[in-house]
Amino acid sequence: MTTDTASASALRAELRDLYDDYAAALDDFDLPRWATFFTDDCHYRIVSLENFKEGLPISTVACRGIAMIHDRIAALGVTAVFEQRVVRHIVGGVRLLEAGSEIVSQGNFALFESQSDRESQLLLVGRYLDRIVRQGGALKFRERVCVYDNYRIRTSLVYPV
Amino acid sequence: MNSTSILEASAVRSWPEQQRDARIPAWIYSDPALFEREMEVFHTGPTWNFVGLECEIAQPGAYKRSWIGTRQVVMVRDENGEIQVLENRCAHRGAMLVWENKGVVKDFTCPYHHWNYDLQGNLLGLPFFRGAMGKGGMPRDFKKAEHSLRRLRVALRGGLVWATYSDETPPLDDYLGPEIGALVDRAAGGGRPLKLLGYNRQLLPCNWKLYLENSRDPYHATLLHSFFVTFGLLRTDTAFKAVPTIGGRHAIMASTYSAATANTQNEVTKELASLKSDFRLEDMELVKPVDEFGDSSMINFSVLPSVFFQQHGNSLALRHIIPKSPTQTELSWTHYGFADDDEAMENRRIKQANLMGPAGYVAIDDSEVLAMMQPSVNAAPDSVQVVEMGGRDVSPQETMVTETLIRGFYSYYREKMGL
């Protein structure tokens, strides 16, 4: 095994941990920890495949900069009215696409939602399209675009993806 | 079958006799026969329905699918540049003709038996018209001209495409009336070309009228929507008008945005448990709109049966209310701006769109409340709801604390439904 493939392999393992840790933060409703996965100049979007394919700029959620990430967390805690639910992330198919000073990678997600008095349901399925940088030794998302395949959202999308 | 079941239902279920304008029986949110009748009276009846934006189908042959009630239609720009609205149903066996949401075609061919139609819906040809090897084929007197796609009447206003199934629908301008007509033109920027910014779609587990009422209910906005209240975007201490038009067919909610009252308290807002006066955003541009129409106003209005014009800050959208069943409704948001918006304005619209849609800071409250309302109305169809805030009549009022627009809608609804 060459050093290059060894380091690429190590990076892939690191990426898988990053994706899993990110998902665990959301599954635990630890939104302050979720914010720490982003750079200050981050761009976080949740966008339908319909808009994404057509290159339309509207997202279902769009945060440009860490301030907007903090605002979404605050609004969820202070002003939003919604029914309690549990959301579980299943993340897989993590692929390293480019390993420069900015890492380009992607992965698949499926989100299951469970609420009182009804069956659990598949809430969202899609892909993460990511640009990642290393800051202070840790990998952070400079850009995370969550493209969902669903034609429409069932009722509401409360928590981040 | 429908008329019988409606008669049977109405024998045991009728509109409450007392305070008719201020009472709503819960069975209207779940009765399947009533739902079918509503689709005939309001959607495929003599009404103008929102279909889409002209700018979505810019070139000849460009099409987009849409819905009128539970029926699917295709709007398409023909070779002459005219917009046609055709039912998405082959005249042969009723198969769905177009399977993609959008596309560009020369003509339409049904996937099932390859019947082929031009962009006006005329049947051009069909395979084996004269049979094969001397056998089969259509009868000699089959006339292609009699087997076109169902073509709807189309009208354009404000860059929007409207369609109607009925020959009896009055001209669009008369159907809208002068007040709504002027607001459609205002929402369209007074003739500036529109620019499509994108879509949001959600499936609400509730009857379509629960959403329609919600969009004609300023009272709830002052209480449920903490986000609005906290940032002064919509509050009881700002000037407000609630105006039903044409006997309750349409409804206008106009508020004056006041930067002065934003995030301050007075005797009115002390009533509001939802005001979070110590809550600040790190990025306040989200709640600081630019006065783009020059009248310091946010005007939202509802056009029967299926579209709500949204102006929340600089987030402009058409909310298309698409009934799917008595207990399911798709809410389809078409977000737009103007072709001559500068980059700052377009970015502002994109940022402020966070208020709306299935994850919207404000809109999420509505989808959650309505999802929790449907099971209760399902379970108690003979219960009766009270809408007496601001009185019992259907007059225009200058306050948010009123249900006059809901009363106006049901006054109109009962007349058309014969209830």
Short description:
Chain A is of the alpha+beta class and 161 residues long. Helices cover 30% and strands 43% of the residues of chain A.
Question: Can you walk through the features of this model?
Answer:
The complex is a heterodimer of chains A (161) and B (419). Chain A has 161 residues and is of the alpha+beta class. Chain A has helices at 3-27, 31-35, 49-54, 66-78; strands at residues 38-48, 61-64, 86-99, 103-114, 121-135, 138-148, 153-154. Chain B folds into two domains: 49-155, Rieske [2Fe-2S] iron-sulphur domain (Rieske Iron-sulfur Protein, 3-layer Sandwich); 191-417, Naphthalene 1,2-dioxygenase Alpha Subunit, Chain A, domain 1. A seven-stranded antiparallel beta sheet of chain B has the order 12-18-17-16-15-14-13, with helices on both faces. In chain B, β17 and β18 (328-338) form a beta hairpin. The interface between A and B is large, with 36 and 42 residues. Chain B: InterPro entries: Rieske_2Fe-2S (IPR017941), Rieske_2Fe-2S_sf (IPR036922), Ring_hydroxy_dOase_asu_C_dom (IPR015879), Rng_hydr_dOase-A (IPR001663). Chain B: It comes from Pigmentiphaga soli.
